[in-house]
Amino acid sequence: AQLLRLTIGKLSDIGITVLAVTSDVTAHSVQMAKALGILIDGDNMKCTFQHPSSSSQQIAYFFDSCHLLRLIRNAFQNFQSIQFINGTAHWQHLVELVALEEQELSNMERIPGKLANLKNHVLKVNCAAQLFSESVASALECLLSLGLPRFQNCIGTIHFVRLVNNLFDIFNSRNCYGKGLKGPLWPETYSKINHVLIEAKTIFVTLSDTSNNQIIKGKRKLGFLGFLLNAES
């Protein structure tokens, strides 16, 4: 934290203004964020810290969205089922989707091939992005409409996958020409983006495991709290 403050101060000395800081989501990064004055708590979130060279300026703090996505994937796999106000998301639906894709979905929109070992393999970051994707949500919707018994209670899974995908799109925006939620935060896109962020906050604070333990109070909370911190920033 002290090295970061020193770096920001040196940049200010040569005319470069730092508006925001993005870090990965390791234990050391979380400790650094807290040392800077960032609060990562569902009930008390503080997303900015004091600029070392300007008493009137605050610097926003972000966690890298790819790392947050991986943490949520790991939490989902660990819990197997995640309950929230709109239903329940089941990891098994994703496992069944991969198995079915291998057998019968050759004529439908293909699910990313790297999900083939989903059941027994710890996915890499890029595979986590494929897991929480619009194509997966759409495939589950299609299977639900076809009436396949294994997917008849997958509405909650669809909602959860789509919400996490939308959050990732917002915070993984790369340029001013992006479309939809991948586009920049402009006055004309603010309402749509803000709607997703409000929905995420409303849902994430209600997440629980099958024993009704609140997830954002447990050991696997950081992926969800990280996205809420980014939303505040």
TrEMBL record:
In this protein, which residues make up the domain named Transposable element P transposase-like GTP-binding insertion?
66-184
Q: Name one Pfam family in it.
A: TNP-like_GBD
Q: Which PANTHER family match?
A: THAP DOMAIN CONTAINING 9, THAP DOMAIN-CONTAINING PROTEIN 6
Give the protein name, as stated in the record: THAP domain containing 9
Protein species of origin: Equus caballus (Horse)
